[in-house]
Specification:
alpha+beta; Thiol Ester Dehydrase, Chain A; 6-stranded antiparallel beta sheet; 6 strands; elongated
Length: about 140
């Protein structure tokens, strides 16, 4: 879709993805967060939610990656402008299958008229239909001339 075709409140739904043991190991390695709630099944069973959970920031990374094509922009993506109002609503576990829902929350052309910012409300939803994370993400586009 081109910027001028985007409508406020338009909704898009992405495909599902199952979170794996390898994902959790990679999240621990990349973040250097080996807290036992992430890395020790026995500890998490005794002191946490009953099993190991992913770091909250892993959910942000998965959401942003899965939302790249929601919608598929015809205008060139320059980059992200930031996140706001991001909330962790429920834990993510190995074996969860998640998908992303996106809603166009706002759009504006920058002062130079060559770029635009699109804001999308993003929700990461698990296999039970529960919203596990949500927030607003901005994307900057280069407008076609």
């Amino acid at each position: 879709m081109r910027y001028d075709e985007l409508e406020i409140d338009a909704r898009f739904t992405g495909h599902g993805r199952t979170l794996t043991e390898a994902d959790l190991t990679l999240a621990c390695m990349l973040s250097a967060d080996w807290h036992p709630i992430h890395a020790n099944e026995e500890w998490a069973r005794a002191h946490g939610p009953g099993r190991r959970i992913f770091q909250g920031t892993f959910g942000i990374m998965v959401t942003m990656g899965m939302a790249t094509t929601l919608p598929r922009f015809d205008d060139k993506i320059i980059g992200a402008t930031g996140l706001r109002e991001w909330t962790y609503r429920a834990p993510l576990f190995v074996g969860d299958t998640v998908h992303v829902e996106a809603e166009i929350a706002g759009k504006r052309i920058t002062s130079d008229g060559k770029r635009a910012v699109v804001e999308r409300g993003l929700r990461l939803i698990n296999q039970n239909g529960a919203v596990v994370q949500e927030g607003v993400a901005g994307t900057m586009l280069a407008l076609a001339e």
